[in-house]
Write a structure and sequence with these properties.
Pfam families (chain B): Rhodanese
Strand content of chain B: 15-25%
InterPro entries (chain B): GlpE_sulfurtransferase, Rhodanese-like_dom, Rhodanese-like_dom_sf
Strand order of the largest sheet of chain B: 3-8-7-4-6
Shape of chain A: elongated
Largest sheet of chain A: none
Order of helices and strands of chain A: HHHHH
Oligomer: heterodimer
Helix content of chain A: over 70%
Radius of gyration of chain A: 16 Å
Number of domains of chain B: 2
Keywords (chain B): Membrane, Transmembrane, Transmembrane helix
Organism (chain B): Geomonas anaerohicana
Number of domains of chain A: 1
Protein name (chain B): Rhodanese-like domain-containing protein
CATH superfamily of the largest domain in chain B: Rhodanese-like domain
């Protein structure tokens, strides 16, 4: 029973994290213009690069989410997701420091507004999940 | 982890990032080309409207504060306030004109008197939590205006930037 539980927890974590990133990617792929607006709201990237980010980022999230769910190249997928979370947290922190009253643009670009600090806490949780996935992956690879 | 493993992981990461970027750019090539040229909103990233409809709905392009300021100062754009007439009277971006979403919806194909169909129009409202400017932008595109943008930061971002507003009437 114990071994069943200890094998199920890493699997559940990996699938949950993958599902979150797929869930985040799909609305952005469907509506890149609105997502570009969310990226532009952070006032970090030049105008055109907001569009490049809006074009590329959702596909990176989707690919990594699929890799985690399928259990293929898990370490690479999780490392990218971890790096994305760090970037998201840096951008959210910058928005908070500058006092920008913006929607985080994390999931549905046209959905209800999520304050940057809420998104920051959520991203910290996802980062912890990523660290767990990487840890289990390292144990499994031994 | 051995050096060989690190190399393998780094290579995998590079391939994943490169493939995703390539696919994303290819998928959104029209949008990116339009954004690069600063092309009219109507041509960018059209998306399918309600199921059963054969129409493809065109969306206004988002535009950032710096570009709005530049177009405002050079007089190249017409700024349209999508908020209520009362909010407009209280405070609005200097030089903007009022077209409340409610009124535009009533008109179905809203017309801006004295504004050419190919003029650059920037719709705004109360910031990112307000969707009236996007809805007004869609109506203006439907009405035949070719270069419609949405300034999603709206009046709050403009005011925070220290740029001029007018109003004060109740």
């Amino acid at each position: 029973m114990k071994s069943f539980r200890s094998s199920m927890i890493p699997l559940a974590l990996r699938i949950a994290l993958g599902a979150v990133f797929i869930y985040a990617a799909i609305p952005k792929i469907a509506d890149p213009v609105t997502f570009a607006g969310s990226v532009a709201a952070y006032q970090i990237l030049p105008y055109f690069w907001s569009y490049v980010t809006a074009a590329v980022l959702p596909f990176l999230e989707l690919t990594c989410g699929l890799l985690l769910i399928l259990g293929v190249r898990v370490r690479s997928g999780a490392l990218i997701i971890g790096a994305l979370n760090v970037v998201f947290m840096a951008a959210l922190s910058a928005a908070m420091i500058r006092g920008l009253d913006i929607d985080c643009g994390c999931f549905r670009p046209d959905g209800p507004k999520t304050a940057p600090w809420v998104a920051l806490v959520r991203d910290a949780f996802f980062l912890a999940m990523t660290a767990s996935v990487l840890r289990y992956e390292r144990v499994r690879a031994r | 982890m051995t050096q060989k493993n690190w190399l393998k992981t780094s290579l995998e990461i590079a391939v994943i990032v490169f493939a995703s970027a390539l696919f994303g750019i290819a998928w959104n090539r029209t949008l990116l080309a339009d954004a690069w040229r600063g092309a009219p909103a109507g041509q960018a990233a059209p998306r399918q409207s309600a199921p059963g409809s054969q129409q493809v709905e065109a969306l206004p392009m988002p535009i950032a504060l710096a570009q709005v300021k530049e177009l405002h100062d050079s007089g190249q754009a017409v700024l349209v306030d999508a908020r209520s007439a009362a909010s407009f009277a209280k405070e609005h971006i200097a030089g903007a004109r009022s077209l409340p979403l409610e009124e535009a919806t009533r008109q179905a194909t809203p017309q801006l008197t004295g504004v050419a169909k190919d003029a650059i129009i920037i719709a705004y409202c109360n910031g990112f939590s307000c969707h009236d400017s996007m809805d007004l932008g869609k109506l203006l595109i439907k009405a035949g205006y070719a270069s419609v943008y949405v300034f999603e930061g709206g009046l709050p971002e403009w005011r925070d930037g220290g740029y001029p507003t007018t109003g004060g009437k109740q």
